[in-house]
Design goal:
heterodimer, A: mainly alpha, 11 helices, B: 3-stranded mixed β-sheet, 12 helices, about 55% helix, vacuole (chain B), CDF/SLC30A (chain B), ion transport (chain B), transmembrane (chain B)
């Protein structure tokens, strides 16, 4: 970890100082990304950067989700089914954040069940809608949990890059849900504004308070991720951040409802509209950086922690070698935060031995932070 | 689109797609040209994209018109049900807008930051679209529950039925609009790399004369007849009849397909609400049937989205596309002369149909790297129709 930070210092960072804030979080890190191992071949080229080798911190076995390996067709449907059948074992063997998330989800589910039944029996629509909302949120959180569990599987034939991407995907789904939430709150505010009759749904206060407490508990669990802008070092960072933002947004919403109710009793007009509007804007601003970051990984945008001029510099350095004619098709993308992949094509003069070039190119890009590079050498 | 090609990025070396240029590359297929065809835009793709964009725009305009009608009618009749249906139509507009934007974005040129082009946007757009469908299904279930709770009989079965019928008609019109040219330019999919539709890696609007009927999902023994390489751009009318007789019924453009799914889901739900409305109209005390119906139809809608979700997930997880057998590819490569082993094989897709490959090939000490590279790239292109490959040759 330290070497990586040192290597990064030589390049420009937009928010370089924030990284230091994470040096005390080592207790949360359970395992670093294990690069997919090259098959045993006697290649002399050190393709995996030794200086950046990440050693797994996890004391328990790495693939703690002990899933029965099905016939290795790698067919996706069968794998998903088997995984769904073993969630309890997975959580029990899982890391601490996983257990906390599972606890939160079960609390939420229990609470929403109670609310739903109560709402149905007493005929209170507000309770039912709140229960629905909670259930939706729980579903998304369960997907995050699922992603945490699966992401530790080793790469297999179909998923040659492993399953870590699922964490990014879960974070994206969370961010998307929060955006929808913000939008729906805005619609609700508009609705309240147009209807102009403030319905004093006081029975909702109890539900809002309970919701707030449960969500604050969740925020406490993931308190190190309770910020808007985080530099992501590992895929789990994104997932945890998204869960934290989810809980945070939910608690803000409950707080907003409580505030609105209180203002209404104070006689402030349009309190509901105001509070809902503020909450909607707050949630939107909260989630936008996460959405952009996860979106840019899913869109295969070039690694964000590497300045584009650094790529150009490397390219020029390679092109300046005397055997090299030109460098083309240099493409880089991030698989997950902390693991970047690239490919490029180098045209060299005839008869040049490729080992030296490969070593040089690999070394250059490894220093940059690209862990997996495929170099195609074309002879002119 | 050709105009903009010259203002390319610094790192991407995309050759200009002019006649005769690409025909010179069969002997040197490793460099840019193969990439250019797959990841940039040829005339065929642009044409197809324009058609799809036109269709989506028409659908959006139609939707807005209907929505305006419903809003006015709902405000007049002071009915919440009609306004709710108008909101559903608004969601349709949102889905179409997302698809339209994704379609438009996929035509943008690649930049250094976005080195593979903007094709991924359509996958994310489709994902957002499907999330919208799920959200709406949830809202519909919630509404059904709400109708159940409001025992006061505010619900008028007639109104529900009428509104749902109107919504159904609108949705059917749009489904026809979006899906009507099955055999038309949609056989193309995205025009290039659909490995199970075309046997070519270069221009695809002409080359399918022979392989159309033999080209199923596996690629055994399909060879590229070289005389097609020289044909860069065939006249448009020669290509149209081929496209029309295309037998590929699926793999239409993913954006149009997701918009189509949205409309289909809405029609199914309209049918469900209609049945519920009819039941309540006929026997107002059987309110629970409404909820049951809605639940059943919501499940049906969710099932229709599962297939597309699988495709999206496959792409986003950077997994090997379903149509390519990685083991066979590896075995085939190992059998080539000079190749000792293949490792670090990664096959992944940018979007449905555009596949990329990267691997390390170990060759014997005395083999000619250039020759082996040629053979490997040629083999992959021939058998699996993956044109953008990056091969790192290492010696033992």
């Amino acid at each position: 970890m330290q070497e990586k930070k040192d290597a990064m210092f030589s390049y420009q960072f937009p928010d370089g100082d924030r990284r230091l804030a994470f040096s005390r979080q080592s207790s949360f890190r359970h395992s670093h990304w294990d690069p997919p191992l090259p098959s045993p071949s006697s290649t002399p080229i050190p393709l995996m950067p030794r200086s950046h080798s990440f050693k797994p911190h996890l004391a328990r076995s790495d693939s703690a989700v002990g899933l029965p390996l099905l016939d290795n067709s790698g067919h996706k449907d069968a794998t998903w089914v088997a995984l769904i059948l073993a969630p309890v074992r997975g959580v029990a063997n899982g890391s601490r954040p996983m257990k906390r998330l599972a606890l939160m989800i079960s609390l939420n589910v229990a609470y929403s069940m109670v609310e739903l039944l109560l709402g149905l029996f007493t005929g209170r629509v507000g309770l039912v809608s709140d229960a629905f909302h909670l259930t939706f949120g729980c579903g998304i959180l369960t997907f995050s949990l699922f992603a945490m569990g699966i992401s530790r599987k080793k790469p297999d034939e179909t998923y040659t890059y492993g399953y870590k991407r699922l964490e990014v995907l879960a974070a994206f789904t969370n961010a998307l849900f929060l955006l929808f939430l913000s939008f729906s709150l805005a619609v609700e505010a508009l609705h309240a504004f147009m209807q102009d009759e403030s319905e004093h749904k006081h029975y909702l206060i109890v539900s809002a308070v309970t919701n707030l407490l449960v969500n604050l508990l969740g925020v406490w669990f993931f308190r190190s991720y309770a910020r808007v802008n985080i530099v992501y070092w590992k895929p789990e960072d994104m997932n945890y951040h998204s869960v934290c933002l989810h809980v945070l947004a939910d608690s803000i919403r409950s707080a907003g409802l409580i505030l609105a109710s209180w203002f209404l009793t104070l006689g402030v007009e349009n309190a509901e509209v105001l509070c809902l509007g503020i909450v909607s804007v707050a949630v939107f601003m909260l989630v936008l950086p996460l959405f952009k970051a996860t979106g840019s990984i899913l869109l295969q945008i070039a690694p964000s922690n590497i300045h584009p001029s650094a790529f150009n510099k490397c390219s020029r350095q390679i092109a300046s070698l005397e055997e090299v004619l030109e460098v083309s098709q240099a493409r880089f993308w991030e698989l997950v935060p902390g693991y970047s992949i690239g490919s490029l094509s180098v045209q060299v003069k005839k008869g040049v031995h490729e080992d030296r070039i490969l070593q040089h190119v690999n070394g250059l890009y490894n220093d940059l932070g690209i862990q997996d590079l495929t170099v195609q050498i074309d002879y002119e | 689109m050709e105009r903009q090609r010259s203002e390319g990025s610094q790192t991407i070396d995309i050759s200009i797609d002019v006649p005769g240029d690409i025909s010179s590359t069969p002997e040197n297929p490793k460099i840019c040209a193969g990439v250019a065809c797959n990841l940039s835009n040829s005339t065929a793709a642009t044409r197809e994209r324009d058609t799809s964009m036109k269709k989506l725009s028409m659908a959006i305009v139609l939707c807005i018109v209907f929505m305006a009608v419903e809003v006015v009618g709902g405000l007049e009749a002071n009915s919440l049900a009609i306004l709710t249906d108008a909101a559903h139509l608004l969601s349709d507009v949102a889905a179409f807008a997302i698809s339209l934007f994704s379609l438009w974005a996929s035509g943008w040129e690649a930049t250094p930051r976005q080195s593979y082009g903007f094709f991924r946007i359509e996958i994310l757009g489709a994902l957002v679209s499907i999330q919208l469908i799920w959200l709406l299904t949830g809202i519909l279930i919630y509404e059904a529950v709400q109708r159940l709770i409001y025992e006061s009989g505010e619900v008028k079965g007639v109104l529900m039925f009428a509104v749902a019928a109107f919504g159904l008609v609108v949705n059917i019109v749009m489904a026809i609009l979006l899906g009507h040219d099955h055999g038309h330019s949609h056989g193309h999919g995205h025009g290039h790399g659909h490995s199970h539709e075309h046997g070519r890696e270069h221009d695809h609007d002409h080359a399918d004369e022979h392989d159309h009927d033999v080209h199923e999902h596996d690629h055994d023994g399909i060879t590229v007849t070289t005389h097609h390489h020289g044909h860069n751009q065939s006249p448009k009318d020669a290509s149209e009849p081929l496209l029309k007789k295309s037998k590929e019924k699926k793999k239409r453009n993913i954006n149009v397909h997701s918009a189509y799914l949205h409309v289909l889901g809405d029609s199914i739900q309209s049918v469900g609400v209609m049945i519920g409305g009819a039941v309540i109209w006929y026997k107002p005390e059987w309110k629970i049937i409404d909820l049951v119906c809605t639940l059943i139809f919501s499940v049906i809608v969710l099932i229709t989205t599962i297939k597309m979700l699988r495709d999206i997930l496959e792409v986003l997880m950077e997994s090997t596309p379903r149509e390519i057998d990685a083991t066979k590819l590896e075995e085939g490569l190992c059998q080539l002369e000079g190749v000792v082993a293949v490792h670090e094989l990664h096959i992944w897709a940018i979007t449905v149909g555009k596949v990329l490959l990267a691997c390390h090939v170990t060759i014997t000490q005395d083999a000619n790297a250039d020759v082996v590279l040629d053979k490997v790239i040629g083999y992959i292109k021939r058998e699996f129709n993956i044109s953008h490959v990056t091969i790192q040759i290492e010696r033992q």
